[in-house]
Amino acid sequence: MTEAHKPLPNWILIVSGIIALLELMVSGSLVFSPESVLETVDLNAKGVDYVIYMWAARQFALGFIFGFATIKKSVPMLTIAYIFFLVMFVGDFLVGISQNENSLIIAAVVMCIISSAMIFAINRKS
What we know:
By secondary structure, the chain is mainly α. The chain folds into two domains: 9-73; 74-126. It has helices at residues 10-32, 34-37, 48-72, 75-99, 102-123. Helix 1 (10-32) packs antiparallel against helix 3 and helix 3 packs antiparallel against helix 4 (75-99). The mean pLDDT is 90.
């Protein structure tokens, strides 16, 4: 096999599949039980349901993209998905700083490291 057609290691597919499932579960939680995810948000405030559904749609789209890329075992698709994941968590990091929320900052840094490591692992040439 050539370098371009070298299959992805199973551990990358497993991690990507788990991320896809987690994103889909978060999306479902936001739609069906938002109070379990958003404990400090007044769910009765005007416009909050719109924002929750938009967030759920983002999570669903990301889960679908990760799942499809994993099933296809596509290096370019997984690379783009992890780049999006990285950009999303850089945004979360900036939100965490602006809101002075340490837990969001820590989670975003960890996920940025994981995303970067996965991008490197997917595109590593042996």
